[in-house]
């Protein structure tokens, strides 16, 4: 209703102002992180502990400073409420112009600023599908905000979009869907089943969403990660050799099926004979990007 949306909008403005204040108050007072070589691509393992290598230059010199401000920020954020519309749930994602055509089933699609907004898709196509575009910079009040240190103003970009899209969505319960993650089944069903119902957070495996799991661990929140490793899909490098595959996409398991098995003590990743492998739920196209409408967008 109009009244409910107006109340949500006012609450969102209050939250935004409080959140900005805390971000500024608890900014790390240390040198930026410097990476030593590449951290590589360590694979997630639900069975065995992995020894993580440090790839941050002079990590001990900045650890305490970052830990102090992070602890202060976490404690302060516990005293502010994230706004949402009651009894709402849905899919949230963020995408630039190139990836919009792949998201006709998304309910709230965040674009970083007005330059990424496509009126034809956002105003004609999406409403027919009960979906809408949200310009993040407008919601966050950044369109005309200038920084004293940056004449171009405050910028939210790249992987930062994910966290802010979830924060500024109007949904109480959110299924986050990456721009390059293609659901095989309807993803909203994940919000009505375990492990989401019992933990409040469930991830289907490796991918960029791992950052949410680490954040939940840092603040002591419950979560569940699918034990089943993702499967590499691609093509044979040499004909007849199934062991040398050129990776193209990741196939991620259904966290609901995986959760049911592990709750019964059936760890398929330890012993494949205890049960059939969980069905595939997402295709994560981390190498080859799928965009059927790129030519049309360029013409527009």
Number of domains: 3
- Count of individual beta strands: 10
Runs in which pLDDT lies below 50 for 5 or more consecutive residues are 146-153
The amount of beta strand, in percent, is 15-25%
Instruction: Specify the structural class.
Output: alpha/beta
Instruction: Tell me the major beta sheet.
Output: 4 strands, parallel
* H-E order: HHEEHEHHEEHEHEEEHEH
The Cα radius of gyration reads 21 Å
Total helices: the number is 9
**Fraction of residues in H or I helices:** 25-40%
Q: What overall geometry do the principal axes of the alpha carbons give? A: globular
Strand order across the biggest sheet?
Answer: 3-2-1-4
Separation of the first and last Cα atoms: 34 Å
User: Could you tell me the mean pLDDT?
Assistant: 82
Describe the structure.
There is one protein chain. With 300 residues, the protein is an alpha/beta fold. The chain folds into three domains: 64 residues; 82 residues, no CATH class; 117 residues, no CATH class. Helix content is 31%, strand content 15%. The protein is built from nine helices and ten strands. The strands form three sheets. It has a four-stranded parallel beta sheet with strand order 3-2-1-4. A four-stranded antiparallel beta sheet has the order 5-10-9-8. Strand 8 and strand 9 form a beta hairpin. About 3% of the residues have low confidence. Pathway: Protein modification; protein glycosylation. Its main location: Golgi. It is found in: Golgi apparatus membrane.
């Amino acid at each position: 209703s109009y009244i409910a949306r107006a109340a949500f909008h006012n609450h969102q403005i209050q939250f935004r102002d409080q959140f900005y204040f805390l971000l500024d108050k608890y900014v790390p007072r240390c040198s930026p992180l410097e990476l030593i070589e590449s951290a590589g691509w360590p694979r997630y393992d639900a069975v065995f502990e992995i020894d993580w290598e440090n790839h941050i230059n002079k990590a001990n010199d900045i650890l305490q400073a970052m830990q102090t401000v992070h602890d202060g920020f976490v404690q302060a954020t516990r005293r502010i409420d994230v706004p949402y519309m009651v009894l709402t749930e849905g899919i949230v994602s963020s995408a630039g112009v190139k990836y919009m055509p792949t998201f006709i089933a998304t309910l709230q699609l965040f674009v970083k600023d007005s330059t990424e907004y496509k009126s034809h898709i956002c105003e004609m196509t999406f409403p027919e599908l009960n979906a809408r575009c949200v310009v993040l910079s407008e919601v966050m009040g950044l369109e005309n905000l200038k920084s004293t240190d940056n004449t171009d103003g405050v910028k939210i970009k790249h992987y930062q979009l994910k966290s802010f899209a979830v924060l500024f969505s109007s949904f109480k319960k959110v299924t986050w869907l990456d721009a390059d993650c293609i659901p095989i089944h309807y993803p909203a069903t994940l919000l009505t089943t375990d492990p989401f119902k019992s933990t409040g957070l469930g991830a289907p495996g490796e991918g960029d969403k791992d950052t949410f799991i680490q954040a939940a661990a840092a603040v002591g929140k419950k979560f569940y990660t699918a034990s089943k490793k993702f499967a590499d899909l691609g093509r044979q490098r040499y004909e007849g050799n199934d062991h040398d595959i050129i990776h193209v996409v990741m196939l991620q398991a259904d966290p609901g099926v995986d959760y049911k098995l592990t709750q019964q003590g059936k760890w398929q990743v330890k012993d494949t004979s205890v049960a059939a492998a969980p069905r595939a739920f997402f295709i994560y196209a981390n190498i080859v990007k799928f965009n059927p409408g790129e030519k049309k967008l360029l013409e527009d």
